[in-house]
Each structure stands twice: as C-alpha cells, then as structure tokens.
Amino acid sequence: MRSSRRGTSSGAVVRRVVAALALIASALVAASLPTQAAPDYRAGGVGTLIVTPAAHVAGQALTFAGKLSKPGRRAIHLQFHMNRPGDRWTDVKGSDHVTTASGAFAFRFPAPSMFDISYRVVGGALVTASRRFYARPQAVTLSINGQDPRSAAVGVASLLPYTVVVDSAADIYTHRELEPPVLSGRTITLQDRTSNHQWRTIGSARADVAGLAAFTLTAPLLGQRVLRARVEDVTTGGNQIGWTASWPTYVGFSLLPDILGAVTPWRAAAGGEPPPTDSTGATDASEQFGWYKPTYDFAWEYGQSLTSPPTRGEKLKGRWLDYSSGSGRVVTFNGALAFQSKLIHQGPGDRGTTSASMTGNAQRYGRWEFRVWQNVYEQDGRDFRMRVELVPEGTAPGACAPESIRVADMELGARSHSVGVRSAQARSEWRFTKTASPAWSGLHNFAVEVAPDHVTWFFDGKAIATTRKRTAISGKVLVPRVSMVGLDNATEHNGAQFSVDWVRAWTLETGRQARTGKALTTASYSPTC
Predict the structure, then answer these.
(1) What are φ and ψ of residue 298, in 5° steps?
(2) Over the stretch 350-409, which tens digit does the pLDDT of each residue have?
(3) Which keywords appear in this protein's UniProt record, sorted alphabetically (predicted)?
(4) Cα separation, 279 vs 116, whole angstroms
(5) What is the arithmetic mean of pLDDT over 439-456?
C-alpha cells in the first residue's frame, strides 16, 4: 500500500517516474514495429498480434497491431474467447478493419471488462496468435488529513479546515498487482450524502500526473458528514471509460478528533472462513422458453458505467441510479454490476443498504432475467440480504418497496431463496420459498414473467412458482431494482459482495408463456420488510 500522505510523497514520485518510463517504452515499441520483426508467435501459419498498453482499465482504447501470416489486403475483425471449458471463439461486433497489402494492421478498440478473456484477429481463414486480457479494476479512494484511505470512519477537529485527497488510481489490490493506470486530467468529483441517501456534488478538480486531486473543506462544530469521490467518464481519444466511485467515508467532527477517530461506530466481527463457492453454470429461462429478441440487455462488457445505456436489444435506452445508506457501493467490476459492502471485506464497518434501480425503459408486462453470483467473506456478524425485484417506476429508493415483485430474496450465503409479491394496495403478500437452493454458490439465473393473468418465477431455466391472483398483478409499469440490504443502525454485518452479470428484459410477444409452478402462500401485508 502506498503512503496515504501524497503531495510530494514517494508514491507520487514513483508514479511520475513510471509514467515517464512507460512513454519512453511505448515510443520505442512504436518505432520498432516498421523496421523490426515482431516476436515470432507463428505456429502453422498463425499471424502476430501485439496489444498496447499492457496495463489498462476496461473501456480504455487499446492498439491492436500485427500481421497475418500471408500477404494480401483482407477484411479482418476481432474474436473473443472466455477460456472456459466448452467456450468457442465468437466474433466481436463493431471491430471490422482492413489490412494493408502486406497483411499488416493497426487499429484501436476498447478494452474488455471481463477478467481472463482472450482476443485474436481473424481475416478469412487466417488468424493471429491470441492475447489474454485482465483489465485493471478502476479504484478510487479518499484520505482525510492524510489518514489511512482504507478507514471507513475518521475524526476531524471542529471548525478547522481539513483536506480530502482523492486517489483516482489507487492500489487497493496490492496482493494481485492490479494498480490501474493514471489518467491525468480526468475529472474528479467530490460528493456528500444527503439526508435521503442521495449524492450531492460539492466540488470538482482534475487529476494531476500522479492521479491525485485535493479539496479543502471546513469542519462544523459537531456532527457527521459522509463523503465519496467519483472519477468521471473518459470518452476522448477512442476511450469508452465509464465513471466509478469510491466507498463512502464517514467523517465525524469533534473537539476531540483523536478520540473520535480512534473509536469505530461499529462492532468488530471476528474473522471467520467464508463459505466455499464454485463455478457451476446457469441455464437461461429465455433459451428454455424461446423468448429471444430482448428489449434491452445490460452486460457492462466494455467499461460502461451505471448510467450507460444497454448495448444490445430492441430499445437501447435506460440507466441505473445508485443508492447507499451505509458503507457499501455499487460499481461496474469484471464485466458485471458489483454490490460491495466495504473497501476491506473483513473487519468492522459493514452496514446499511446499497441498491441500484433502473429508470427509462419500463414495461407493464414482460419477462426479466438476472444472472448473479455471490461471495460472503465473514461469518460472525449478521448477513446482508440480496434482493432482486421489480418495482413501479419512480419508486423511492430504500430497502422496502410498498409494491414489488420479488424475483429473488435471500440472505447471502443461505441455502434457500424466496420469490413473491408485496402489495400495499391489496394489503397482502404472497411468497414461495425454494429450500435446498444452490443459489448461494456459483452463477445462477433468476427470472420472472409478468402477464395480465399470471406471474411465474424461474430459477436456472425452470419454472418454480406461479400465481394467478389478480390482486397480485398491479398492472403498473415496472423496472428492476437490485439491493444489498442491511440495517442502518450499528449492527455489524458480514463483509460481502454479489455481482449481477447481466440484466435482460423481453416482451410477451415471443416464446412460450409458463403458468405452472408451486403455489404461493398468502400473508398479511407488513409495511416493513
């Protein structure tokens, strides 16, 4: 971990030196390409491929340069391979280019988000060697008066100025050597959390050559403020890098800041072994029932942010709005939407609810499907809940919607999950619980079909529950909302993360409708969840 006291610190100096060396290395590589033979990756007529820069974030413009094994002007394009058993090489849309007469090529294309994915260039029957990618995760931290940026809560002296230093390329995954590259000049926004748990901008600056930006604020006499930093979109120079945010930092103001800073407001949890996970596959309900042609498909494969529109589908509109009442955040990570309880997954400080709600592409009836996986890193606190639901568009943020269709509701790590409907209008709730559910481990699909005469729920491609109760079908236009639900008080929760690999929606116009499954039980409506 680099020093949190930057200014002219050794970390910042190292960054400047590394940046200068990288520029020199890039220039030498570029100068050598026309005159020197590229490394010989040929095997049975396989061409060459060099991708630069090697260290990059998702969506960053990369240069693909090389040469096919035979001369001649040819149309070429990229293909990807996920490097899993059974995967095949698949064409990358929008990557078409043409070689020179010698078979050489050089073009730019955004870096993929997914870890451990391979790309190659294809021209007719000719292919190049493949290159494996591992995009560096965007990582943003903020340090208050030089204190450890990993601290979820810090103390500041009353009525005095204090400094917030934002690191837009923080090295938070030190054991994996995943420090992201510095993007000097990138806009950094400092925000504070309002009383309704939304984020309000209080200042902006540009990242310097070390990726840092400093803000000076004045402390009140007493109280607390919750801050976060956002690094904004980079869309120039062929880049498609979406914005991302830091974890929230609680800043307490007191006449005795050293005492305040030394006392965490949360109970510490002893470190326990997390439950094991596996990589079992998931089956799509859309394929089993022939839905096809999605209205939208959010997949976050090329550096998109929460507010980026879907990249596939019949209606390419909609975005996600984030909400946090505690220590967590939701960001795009490894080609998915990641809900993370805290910067450091173990130790005290995990609390509150973190959620993302879609807006701008609602449907009254249709199908929705989510692919999800989860991880729990502690065992001695209270478990967060994972809640995947459909809510009427415009529903206020929070953990408990008065009207919702629950697509999946479970404690993270639990061996069961529930589906159902909540309706304040009907003063009723309906629920079915799937016991012995493998949803806690590996990739799994949760889906729902909402029609005028029924609602049916699916798990890994199979219909598991259904209801035809008219009072359970509100007829309101619906959007997805996904939440990591925790208590907002001082209760300590187990550090956790779950990720939504993709979110897709369809109309009812294609495929087979499903009206079979277990019946739901009925209960009285409760205003709390």
Answers:
(1) -90, 125
(2) 999 999 999 999 999 999 999 999 999 988 889 999 999 999 999 988 878 899 999 999
(3) Signal
(4) 15
(5) 95
- Class (C level, CATH) for 289-524: mainly beta
Question: 463 to each of 283, 291, 389, 471, 515, how far by Cα in Å?
Answer: 12, 14, 17, 21, 8
∠ CA 79-83-84 to the nearest 5 degrees? 125
Q: Is 169 exposed, middle or buried (0-12, 13-18, 19+ CB in 10 A)?
A: buried
User: What is the pLDDT at residue 398?
Assistant: 80
Give the Cα separation of 250 and 245 in Å (integer): 15
251/6 Cα distance (integer angstroms): 20
Sign of the dihedral defined by the CA atoms of residues 306, 307, 311, 316, in that order: positive
Can you read off the two tokens belonging to residue 79? Answer: 């293909």
The CATH 2.60.40.10 domain(s) of the chain lie at 10-18+138-235+242-258, 35-133
Contact indicator for 158, 220 with CB cutoff of 8 Å: yes
Q: Which residues of 303-333 are buried (b: 16+ CB within 10 A; e: fewer)?
A: bbbbebebbebeeeebbbbbbbbbbbbbbbb
CATH number for the domain running over 10-18+138-235+242-258: 2.60.40.10
Q: Residue 190: beta bridge partners? A: 203, 229
What letter represents residue 325's amino acid? S
Is the overall model pTM greater than 0.85, yes or no? no
Residue 127 CB neighbour total at 10 angstroms: 20
For residues 383 and 390, what is the distance between their CA atoms, to the nearest angstrom?
Answer: 23
Q: For the domain made up of 35-133, give the CATH fold.
A: Immunoglobulin-like (2.60.40)
